[in-house]
Design brief:
Layout (H helix, E strand, L loop, with lengths): L3 E14 L5 H4 L6 E13 L4 E14 L5 E15 L5 H30 L12 H11 L1
Antiparallel strand pairs: 1-4, 2-3, 3-4
Helix pairs in contact: 2-3
Length: 142
């Protein structure tokens, strides 16, 4: 792991959609909901070993019967990272794609939980994400 410091972290973009409200609240038997979660990480480099790490999350809840959308949350949560000079490119890449997102994720998790509960839905709490596994899986595909 390369040495780094998160200088700041912030919500860059967020969207919450619930296209089938209030209809969903009036029907008693809507069936089971299924939730799809997609996570992507983008890195933008700058001068002086300064990087922007974007943790892009999409949470889509749908009814199994009919695929009707319950809610869709899309967010980009970012961290501005100062990294010490690192010669090992693999260590730098692993730090930016595993270690930094691991530190940013709790804020995204809290945002999603708060959005769902304050929008009238049962609170949805995302399970922890194994960013090392995501990284390894992506490396196998490439």
């Amino acid at each position: 792991m390369a040495n780094f410091k998160i200088i700041s972290q912030f919500l860059k973009d967020i969207s919450f959609e619930s296209p089938n409200v209030p209809e969903l609240f009036f029907k008693q038997d809507n069936g089971q909901a299924k939730i799809e979660i997609n996570i992507d990480i983008q890195i933008k480099g700058a001068e002086n070993n300064l990087f922007m790490v974007d943790l892009i999350t999409k949470v889509h809840s749908k009814l199994e019967a009919g695929e009707k959308s319950i809610f869709l949350i899309e967010s980009t949560y970012s961290g501005l990272v100062q990294m010490e000079e690192e010669k090992d490119e693999d260590a730098k890449k692993r730090t930016l794609l595993i270690d930094v997102p691991t530190l940013l994720f709790p804020a995204v998790r809290a945002l999603v939980s708060r959005l769902t509960s304050e929008s009238g839905f049962p609170t949805f709490v995302m399970q922890p994400v194994d960013f090392a596994k995501l990284y390894e899986d992506k490396q196998k595909k490439n």
